[in-house]
Amino acid sequence: MANPGNPLTPVQTAKAKTDDDRRPPAGAMAGPGRTLALLTALFLLWGFCSGLGDILNRHFQDTLHLSQAQAGLVQSANYIAYFLMALPAGWLARKFGYPGGILTGLGLLAGGSLWFIPATRIGTYGAYLAGVFIIASGMTVLETIANPYATLLGAREGGAARLNLAQTFNGLGRMLGPMVGGRFIFSGGGPGDPGSRLYIPYLGAGLAAAGLMAVFARARLPDPRAGEAARGAAAGRGRKPLWRRHHFTLGVAAQFCYLAAQTGVFSCFVNYALENDPGTTARQAATRLGVVGFGWFLLGRVGGGAVLRRAPAHGVLAVCAAISAGLMAVVTGGGRAGGMALCGAFFFMSVMFPTLFALGIRGLGEHTKAGSALMVMAMVGGALAPLGMGRIADVYTVRAAFAVPLAGFVFIALYGAAWPALAARDRAE
Questions:
Q1: Residue 280 and residue 299: Cα distance in Å, rounded?
Q2: Burial class of residue 219 (count of CB atoms within 10 Å of its CB; 0-12, 13-18, 19+)
Q3: What is the number of domains present in the chain?
Q4: Strand, coil or helix: what is 402?
Q5: At 301, is the secondary structure helix, strand, or coil?
Q6: pLDDT score at 117
């Protein structure tokens, strides 16, 4: 017989008790602010690992005597992992939730980083590429899970600004990667063993990843899986197929173009500096990439976060992409102006990835994780650009290769300008 003071039926009462058993103790759950702070540490670490990868291709040209196109396989291995691992990462998020997926990504990141210790002794290109692939697999899981997680930790309209804040620390990591890595990667142990110190920055990254795993394992983080489905259903968009969301499908294409452009700019920076300024050494170019290039990138993230709190995200995206396209046109001309334009482009590129990601998955509701996985799969554009740009550089010049990112930025500018109409059309259908 039901308790008269209890308005629930016996079945509802039993379910409520079961749900209570699954909840963490009161006060144990981390709030959105603390969770976002932990995510920023995560973004910092994988930004550092990405920054290390941006200078590896020049190192392999020098030590393994590869062409620019062959060395481009470093970035290709990185982004092929993004393509292959994005859907499994989405499955992990659905199966184990955001916190469980983050632990998996950190485990892969730690394992891939520590693999560089035996890889340095093996000394073959394949061994190094295996390490790059494992690290990239971990970063894929983190990208697929941490990016939408950051957008869901508060009001939907502030998603782009929150993700941009977290990605600011990713930019800081990408600035530190070439600066720290260049000191070891371009200063080997001796003439007969130029790559003997390559493992040192990766050892530090592996230990940091293991430490973060311990922190995340102890923290009780909120998992907004129910909330994201409820928001999508309340808006009437929860069951609409992804392929019919025009702001999403074109957002995937724009993300593909952005990663092609970004990776091309990052990976060809050192070679452009060496060609454009013959007195520059590889180590000086790597330092310039870290201090000047990623310094501007970091400032752009900080400034972009402030702008995104006051201006519509699609407008910011369109303007920054249009300016970046103009700067790439200057870069193809070479000279002092080309070098300055290349560094300046880092500032305007910085807000594009988080803004594109947030705009693409906005309003997907129960499809958020699947949409996030497909947005990450689009990062395979970063696998193709270094190969194509390396081939153009081998046949013509490095500066001519920057026509590839120029074309990508033009498409992104058009997407940003068209986004309000695309989103309105999706809401109307």
A1: 25
A2: middle
A3: 1
A4: coil
A5: helix
A6: 92
In one-letter notation, the amino acid at residue 67 is S
* C-alpha torsion sign, points 302, 304, 306, 308: negative
**What's the CATH number where 110 sits?**
1.20.1250.20
Domain membership of residue 151 (yes or no) is yes
Rounded to whole angstroms, the Cα distance separating 282 from 399 reads: 17
Look up tokens 């600011």; give the residue. 168
Task: State the pLDDT at residue 259.
Answer: 92
Cα 238 to Cα 233: distance, rounded to the nearest angstrom: 4
- Residue ranges of the chain with per-residue pLDDT less than 70: 1-32, 68, 72, 154-157, 187-196, 223-239, 429
- Tell whether pTM > 0.85: no
Residue 157, pLDDT score? 67
Q: In this structure, is residue 189 part of a structural domain?
A: yes
For the chain, report the end-to-end CA distance as a whole number of angstroms.
Answer: 49
Asked if residue 14 is part of any domain, the answer here is no
Considering only CA atoms, which of 205, 260, 270, 199 is closest in space to residue 57?
270
CA angle 281–43–290, rounded 5-degree value: 15
Q: Which tokens in the block code for residue 37?
A: 């702070």
**Cα 152 from chain centroid (whole Å):** 17
For 127, the domain range is: 33-428
No. of helices (H) and no. of strands (E), the chain: 19, 0
